[in-house]
Design goal:
With 449 residues, this protein is of the alpha+beta class. It has three domains: 3-205, no CATH class; 208-334, Alpha-Beta Plaits (2-Layer Sandwich); 341-448, Alpha-Beta Plaits (2-Layer Sandwich). 30% of the residues lie in helices and 25% in strands. It is built from 13 helices and 14 strands. The strands form two sheets. Strands 5, 6, 7, 8, 9, 10, 11, 12, 13 and 14 form a ten-stranded mixed sheet that branches. A four-stranded mixed sheet has the order 2-1-3-4. α9 (250-262) crosses α10 (302-313). The longest helix is centred in the middle third of the chain and has 17 residues, at 143-159. Bound molecules: zinc ion (2 copies). One zinc ion binds next to α2.
Length: 449
């Protein structure tokens, strides 16, 4: 070891009055004394340990033993308890922590494959730990990291679960704050009776995501649950104490079976746009992601779930291509790329009589300037959108009725393209046919990229 390092170690002994455990000692110098160095020193010490099976969670302990040995340890005793951690690692056993975690998992009937461990200790203990780093002018990880690593390693080994830093199924928080006494003289001191019940475990269950496409086969169903505006969902006379305006929604149709399969808390439905309640969604369907909040069960058979969901939906809706996906898909759905297009099929009614030839004029519809429609002004910003009609075909039914199939850029309001919305959409079908036209029925037949 270099002279400069030895000086720092001696200063650490001084600051802690020689009361520092091997784990904290090793942890303070983990970034400057490598694992290889530690193993090599242990070999030289003839330390009785199988060097091939050393766990990462034990490495700081061994590093501390080696450091102490290098400095002729007997001079630097460690008898009255570690001033930094209160010897928490000797007083609290991995077994006790694991037992508390198991109890919690069982209590929640929780299934998980991957996890991340977090921990809580009194902030005074952490502050003191960091202050020592400042005094020594070193950088080291804090005690929490050490706890997390030890507990995480044990979960991997004995429970065969996988640690995942990016996207864990659950985050297990081990709260050891109650294990410590109130801070006396800024030292980390533990309560004498280290009762396992002082250890608290909390579990954060991360959401899971399923993507797919839905068809809405009948009119009159909103995409998502629509809470009653009078009672905000609490239930009142106006909504017949259901808390909502519509009995069913696309979201609730899939959620009913998902809830049973995952035992989740709730769901959030993210659609790639949405159609009006009176508009059907046909063709290949509209992409969506269902966010399942706090699922207790994650190992789903999506084929089976899909069958159950579709049976439950009867002839009202259909869910296709269900797949697991990541959270990032939600954001991707919301950003509709410029080349997103939609194909609509509308039944249009005209006030005055029209001739079949008149319909040819509609082919001139191309660039549409559309102010926010009056009917959605209460929830959408008032601005002018410029959208393109890409293709348009018409089918004459009778003098007051025709069918119009139109392919447009996403975001063009079709009902207003037909009515004109008092001149707020220009040009429009009514204007071209020189008679008031209304959209009687509307279907989305394709949502494309
Ligand atoms: Zn310690
Ligand atoms: Zn209500």
């Amino acid at each position: 070891m270099k002279e400069e390092l030895i000086l720092k170690i001696k200063k650490l002994f001084e600051i802690t009055d020689n009361n520092i455990c091997n784990r904290c000692l090793g942890r303070k110098f983990s970034s400057v004394l490598s694992k290889e160095w530690v193993l090599n020193e242990l070999k030289n010490m003839n330390y009785s340990i199988d060097l091939d099976s050393i766990l990462d969670g034990e490495l700081n302990l061994l590093r501390g033993i080696v450091i102490r040995n290098n400095l002729n340890g007997e001079k630097y005793l460690n008898d009255t308890g570690c001033e930094i951690c209160g010897n928490i690692f000797e007083n609290i056993s991995k077994k006790d922590i694991l037992k508390k975690i198991d109890e919690k998992i069982e209590f929640l009937s929780l299934e998980y494959d991957s996890f991340l461990v977090g921990s809580k200790i009194p902030k005074e203990v952490l502050e003191r730990d960091m202050k020592i780093n400042e005094e020594l002018d070193i950088e080291s990880e804090n005690i929490k990291k050490e706890i997390n690593r030890i507990v995480g390693e044990e979960l991997e080994l004995s429970r065969k679960k996988e640690v995942n830093f990016e996207n864990p199924d659950v985050v297990i928080v081990v709260d050891l704050r109650k294990v410590f006494k109130d801070m006396g003289e800024s030292k980390g001191v533990l309560k004498e009776d280290n009762d396992e019940n002082l250890i608290e475990v909390r579990i954060q269950i991360n959401p899971m995501f399923i993507e797919g496409k839905y068809l809405k086969l009948i009119r009159g169903i909103p995409q998502t649950k629509w809470p009653c505006s009078k009672c905000k969902g609490r239930g009142c006379e106006a909504c017949n104490f259901t808390g909502k305006i519509y009995d069913e929604s696309i979201e609730e149709l899939i959620y009913y079976k998902v809830k049973i399969a995952t035992n989740c808390y709730k769901s959030k439905f993210h659609g790639a746009g949405r159609e009006d309640i009176d508009v059907r969604m046909l063709g290949g369907g509209r992409p969506f992601v269902l966010e399942i909040v706090e699922p207790k069960t994650r190992n789903l058979d999506l084929n089976k779930l899909s069958e159950e969901v579709n049976r439950y939906c009867e002839e009202k809706a259909k869910f296709l291509d269900l797949n697991f996906c990541s959270k990032s898909r939600v954001a991707e759905l919301k950003v509709s790329s410029p080349d997103t297009f939609k194909v609509y099929c509308a039944i249009v009614k005209s006030e005055d009589e029209i001739l079949k030839e008149d319909l040819k004029e509609l082919k001139t519809l191309n660039i549409i300037k559309q102010e926010t429609p009056t009917r959605v002004m209460h929830r959408r910003a008032d601005l002018i959108r410029t959208k393109r009609v890409k293709e348009l075909d018409t089918y004459f039914i009778n003098a007051h009725l025709f069918k119009m199939k139109v392919k447009t850029e996403g975001g063009l309001y079709i009902k207003e393209l037909i009515s004109g919305d008092d001149g707020r959409t220009k040009p429009n079908v009514s204007e071209i046919l020189k008679t008031k036209c209304l959209c009687k029925e509307l279907d989305v037949v394709e949502v494309g990229k």
